[in-house]
Amino acid sequence: MGVWQSFFLLALLVGASAFVPPRPTALSGGRLFRQNAGRLVSSPLESKPTDLEEELQQEIDLKNTKLSKAEELKEIKDAEGSDQSIEELLRVRPFVPFLLEKAVENFDDLFVKKRQKASVDELRDLHSRLHGLKDKHLVSVKTLGEAKAGDGKRIGLTSNEQIRSAQMKGETVTGKKRIVLLGSGWGSHSFLSYIDATKYDVTVVSPRNFFLFTPMLAGAALGTVEFGSITEPIRNVNPRVDYLEATCLGVDPETQTATFESVVCEGTSCVIEEFVLSYDMLVVAVGAQTATYGIPGVAEHCYFFKQVEHAAAVRKAIGNCFEKANLPGLSEEQRRNLLTFVIVGAGPTGVELTGELRDFVEKEGPRYYPHLLKYVDIKVVEATDKVLPPFEASLQRRALAELTERRSPLADMGLLESERPCLTSVLLQSGVKRVTDSTVTLSDGSELPYGVIVWAAGNGPLPLVADMIEGVDRQKELKEKGVSRGRIVTDPWLRVQGVKNLFAFGDCAVMETAPLPQTAQVASQQGAFLARLLNKNFDLDASVPKRIGPKVFLSEKLPFGVDSRDLAKPFQFLNLGILAYLGGGSALAQIQVDQRQLRQEGAAGWVLWRGVYFTKQVSLRNRLLVALDWLKTSLFGRDITRF
Ligand SMILES: Cc1cc2nc3c(=O)[nH]c(=O)nc-3n(C[C@H](O)[C@H](O)[C@H](O)COP(=O)(O)OP(=O)(O)OC[C@H]3O[C@@H](n4cnc5c(N)ncnc54)[C@H](O)[C@@H]3O)c2cc1C
Q: Residues in domain External alternative NADH-ubiquinone oxidoreductase-like C-terminal (predicted)?
């Protein structure tokens, strides 16, 4: 074919493509998003549209505005060539069949676990192969030089630069698709527990080489349990998976590469390396960071409460305050200020920390600091008019009474001032305006002196997440519409909207169709959902994931299995309820069974709370250690050692 014929054919094809309805690319919130949706694509040679084109464009625009939801759904159905109703697929499944689906999935998980079982020798082989693979997928690595810990500078960009060929992207050694998973928290732990690592090459990258059981962080901060008992090495979760200790700095969806930074510190000196990895699928489960809402002094003076190191710092700071207050030569006022503990935020984290702190003071105080207890004051500061917003009103009232009215046993022992028999108080509708190194100013202008202030008042996006939102047009659009609120927006199959081969879940993401709270429960159910979806043979590029291979699992073969039909069902959250410890052997439990809510409080709530946290530990090792810690604490008291 000559050059002119080719050119003519190309022009015809480009022209024709303007009239071919574009293939749907994503379904979200019942809306269809198309590439070039409704825009007339003109020939690249013609810069100005003709009258005919303008007329056609108007017609298309009109058609688009008229397109009803039902028509959109029908279009997807036609495009998918399936009889299955999309509406039915997206509808919330009734409780009993949904539970049945979940039960069947457990058999699938056993099957995947069995398939992944390997002897020590096999695992050794696998890891040496994965090590080779790691280098294969490495696009570039740079040693950025050495820096002093804490100086916040990167120096020496070229000291040991080793750039590999970018053509290595996408090459595989094993022929399997490569999944790069970001994060080692709740979502990632669950994803790793269920993903079939015989089907994919999986690499986890996270700055933290362990999983943290966050619901017991408050207990760990006050020595009820030890830090090591509520953490689990991420490498233990799935021995077939490779782990790299690094932080993701950015993602380039076009080249399907991600840039990472590894910081290894010894003493006060750190070596910083930057490397780029390619991926076939990137799974983002990086969580969120503490939001300070730009309030002056919060970042500088408040203790945050998300990570183990935060809890360790809080433990140390509380101990410091008691030891400082114990020194001779201090005035009454100085002692009182040092032993005033302010907790900002009356959500579950703030309330549980308050309960644990009160337990610590009541149980260990009479032994170690009886003469100081009359100065202790624990204040919860909350901007709204409620405590524990996720709980039902009667349980909120119970929590408030527990924190404001409960007479401390220390009062009966004569260790508190008679006019203040309750160790804790709650200041509602009190926003924080400013924090200095010794005082916090509230919205009514009052100033509270404090010894330790802990900030447990909300989540905000990590810089990586904020950059990803800004870097993708569709995400930016959803942000402007107020959908994302600092989270990456996904469709109901957890695919990031506007980008291919990218998935996100947990605290860093939100489904446009059904926004869910930022909890461990949601993150871990989503991690399991995505892993199970990837284990099956679905085309994830289709607007609704469609079966393209044989049915392998029971959940596909049995008629009541989640994926027994040709289109994958979307994620549906199973709300198991919420728990909160209030201190003094009292807890709240709000358990959801379909539309019914079971509520327990006081000692019965506490038994439930302990039972659930014990069984929810992610390994037998954690379960044993936590049980031993509880026993040790009840026999010998909390550990107040500080390093
Ligand atoms: C003190 C406390 C108590 C809580 N109690 C409860 C509770 O009782 N019940 C409940 O349901 N929820 C609770 N939560 C909330 C729950 O912990 C979160 O919702 C959950 O951790 C979210 O899981 P995730 O996987 O999205 O993120 P996370 O568990 O936060 O994990 C994020 C991971 O990503 C890593 N990471 C961060 N940045 C990067 C990066 N740039 N590159 C690579 N990796 C990165 C982090 O190191 C971490 O490993 C609590 C939270 C806290 C802080």
A: 576-639
